[in-house]
TrEMBL record, chain A:
<comment type="subunit">
    <text>Heterotrimer of A, B and C subunits.</text>
</comment>
<comment type="similarity">
    <text>Belongs to the GatB/GatE family. GatB subfamily.</text>
</comment>
<keyword id="KW-0067">ATP-binding</keyword>
<protein>
    <recommendedName>
        <fullName>Aspartyl/glutamyl-tRNA(Asn/Gln) amidotransferase subunit B</fullName>
        <ecNumber>6.3.5.-</ecNumber>
    </recommendedName>
</protein>
<dbReference type="InterPro" id="IPR004413">
    <property type="entry name" value="GatB"/>
</dbReference>
<dbReference type="InterPro" id="IPR023168">
    <property type="entry name" value="GatB_Yqey_C_2"/>
</dbReference>
<keyword id="KW-0648">Protein biosynthesis</keyword>
<dbReference type="InterPro" id="IPR014746">
    <property type="entry name" value="Gln_synth/guanido_kin_cat_dom"/>
</dbReference>
<dbReference type="InterPro" id="IPR017958">
    <property type="entry name" value="Gln-tRNA_amidoTrfase_suB_CS"/>
</dbReference>
<dbReference type="Pfam" id="PF02637">
    <property type="entry name" value="GatB_Yqey"/>
</dbReference>
<keyword id="KW-0436">Ligase</keyword>
<dbReference type="InterPro" id="IPR006075">
    <property type="entry name" value="Asn/Gln-tRNA_Trfase_suB/E_cat"/>
</dbReference>
<dbReference type="InterPro" id="IPR003789">
    <property type="entry name" value="Asn/Gln_tRNA_amidoTrase-B-like"/>
</dbReference>
<feature type="domain" description="Asn/Gln amidotransferase">
    <location>
        <begin position="355"/>
        <end position="501"/>
    </location>
</feature>
<dbReference type="InterPro" id="IPR018027">
    <property type="entry name" value="Asn/Gln_amidotransferase"/>
</dbReference>
<dbReference type="InterPro" id="IPR017959">
    <property type="entry name" value="Asn/Gln-tRNA_amidoTrfase_suB/E"/>
</dbReference>
<dbReference type="Pfam" id="PF02934">
    <property type="entry name" value="GatB_N"/>
</dbReference>
Amino acid sequence: MSTTVLPSYDDVVERYAPVIGLETHVELGTKTKMFCGCPTDFGGEPNTRVCPVCLGLPGSLPVANKAAIEATIRIGLALNCSIAPWSRFARKNYFYPDMPKNYQISQYDEPLCVDGWLDVEIVGEDGQPELFRVGIERVHLEEDTGKTLHVGGATGRIHGATESLVDYNRAGIPLVEIVTKPIPGTGAKAPIVARAYVTELRDVVRSLGVSDVRMEEGSLRCDVNTSLSPAGSAEWGTRTETKNVNSLRSVERAVRSEMLRQAAVLDTGGRIVQETRHFHEDTGDTTSGRSKETATDYRYFPEPDLVPLAPDPAWVADLKAALPELPRLHRRRLQQDWGLNDHDMQSVLNAGAVELIEQTVAAGTTPAGARKWWLGELSRRANEAGVELSAVGATPAQVAELQKLVDAGKLNDKLARTVLEGVVAGEGSPSEIMAARGLEVVSDTGALTTAVDEAITANPDIAAKVRDGKVAAAGALVGAVMKSTRGADAKTVRSLILSRLGVEG
Amino acid sequence: MADVTRMTATEIAALIATGEASAVEVTRAHLDRIAAVDDRVHAFLHVDTDGALEAARAVDAKRAAGEELGPLAGVPVAVKDVLTAKGVPTTVGSKILEGWRPPYDSTIVRRLRAAGTVMLGKTNMDEFAMGSSTEYSAYGPTGNPWDLGRIPGGSGGGSSAALAAYEAPLAIGSDTGGSIRQPGAVTGTVGAKPTYGGTSRYGLVAFSSSLDTPGPCARTVLDAALLHEAIGGHDPRDSTSIPAPVPDVVAAARAGASGDLTGVKLGLVTEFSGEGAEPGVTAAFRDAVDALTKLGAEVVEVSCPHFQYALPAYYLIAPSECSSNLARFDGVRFGLRVGDDGNRGLEEVMSLTRDAGFGPEVKRRIMLGTYALSSGYYDAYYGQAQKVRTLITRDFTAAFEQADVLISPTTPFVAFPFGSRTADPYQMYLADLFTIPTNLYGGPGISVPCGLSEGLPVGLQIMAPTMADDRMYRVGAALESVIGTLTPPEL
């Protein structure tokens, strides 16, 4: 472990200017793999979703998946890229056992989509939204590799392992690589711009319906490039590439941590080594991987097994016309529909709740009702469990049903929380849980009147005080009724007690 | 009944169709012939006796059931060991794939089965189709039935020798730089390289993806055309397969057999008619050209100035692609694995496996290609070779404006003695001097016997524009109508 004392972040950004860049891989959600007919579903027994093509058996040949090409072009269009009238696949040659052919079919100097941009929004120092335009260098299509499992060692890493097993189920799944241009000028905001970019990119890809873009399942993967140069310098510094950045939060932490580390190196007169670094979720640090100074020669050349791609311009125009509303504009419209100010909208965004609230509203509740649950109780639970809000265990439909029950007076706030607990625990829909746990607000006045009368009979002294005008004493009777009915509406109970005792409320 | 092994595929198919012979009888006759001569010829790496008899019985059962049979039903065929056949050993002539039984059929083999042909087995070849003599086969060379001390050509020497030795009436080869045509020429048989993309590469173990073309070998032009028709046509499993019907090669072969070439312009490539070929080869070629002229053909001289760069361009493009294609042979998933004793790391095991599994010519080409593709050299080698390829294509396009087909000797020399060209790789590479341009262009080419030189066969090559394969069959059949088929001495 490094014992270097890191400078403070404020100090770093005062003296150094960061330049960041992001390389993002998106696993497409096509039904079949990139170059064969094998299914792409996540999971599955090892080596069950394979065929001669994705195993790279001698003689087998790839055939490009049209759906994957279409998805890539749509991503490119959504990122304002030009779609190349002619592009090619290329072979990237290197030996690694999780790559069946010992070359990866990718794209090199002739990618499908080039030269675009994505506008990302962050909250400025004044609390107002601030827009950054991130340049997109290229969007290209390639195939994923298999996965290697090292067994017999203590760490699961290759060191100390007795055997290595390879699962090729993932081999050949279409991957879209989206590479930004270098992003200068973000200053202290570099980490949050990086995070905002990946978030926005994720939302764009999701809105296109071409991938489930789940970082935790690896269908969205991100490498973060970071460099520092002395403030005011015209030249950029040497960059490092940080891998293993597996969540949005990690994107932000990785940039920040790398900025601090590089500043410490530069401060002591050191030199930044161009290398791959690994981010560690637990410590928030990066450690050195392989050096890129002796660059691997991938011997790229055009893939002779595949004909060039020449997308019909009319088809591309149709795809462009059919693009959905961009998430940023969509959010703006939602903000207006929901009547939220910037601050409240930002809270929704920060919680990752936009889509959840949108779907909950679509399921028939008010925006305020939907927002209350997702930002309140459910956010709290998600934080406690350390999961994304979408993985908290409640669906928009369930939350909508819950709120409707509250609106109908069948649940009070306290009961609703209990029901929600059941929902999150997977006990069923709110109404099923109400029935199973007997949690309904007692609104049958016949039953309630009986309960009130019983309470009055059982507490003659208190009843007498109330009759004498000491209305405050009625609280004890309310409590008794609430207890016996396990959840009547307190206000109703109180007025019923007062009216039975002939006192005006 | 006459000896079926001496018959053409067309004759055999007719016998089976009329019931004069059963497919099983025909198959047994060929298996017997193989048993009798192949220990000397060594055309086969694997004889699939059970599979062949089973396929033959299926044809006989179909006939018995009154089902319609295709034009090649029941005809035996030998398949170059470069194509996968499910469950049948496929070695590509290499130790690195010894014992590998592929779990799938190549498209060619699938179509052969669908046509009712009977696959006798897999034929010998230079390792990974790299060579012109079968001397680079890891399993020993094949003898030329005309003289067992001489090479049968390569890489598909096993397929052509099987035809010349009457072990099979039909065979499949693959042609990357001449591997169908040159063996055809030196064994006195017919070998056709279809238009690139006209026959599927799916299941053809790749040497050079942009050049490899599977195709038919036979003893007559019509038989080759029938086989071409059976295996050709679009295959959705091969991205480079042309989505168009096979040109009517069978009709063209029948038309050519009438011996009338009136109105056909033959282009004589200036650059191939001077030096470079043995005098005997040149003499036989000139006689054949005269014969074609007498059939009504007109001879025009065409210049293809860039053909002289074809050989060097080929020896950059093919090794480059091979260096990548052969990377998958690493001992991890299939085939040979050497040195995995629990003490060695992955890279070392891969390295030992490749060192033990690949022969010297394969290693030479992997190294050449690795170098040609490496950063800093790519433009000067691979990039430059691709430019030459474009220029050669232009030469062909211009030449076909003046002539319907181009003709040349197939190969500069007749079958040479074993060992005479292995010391200097370049001397071996020269065998493909006349065939390589066609591969770089992607057009079709056929070698048809055109005479003898010192008692050994000489082939004439006919080259046609892409997807005009029918033209070469017409001219080839016309030549055959004059020359006839060549019969080697008895083994």
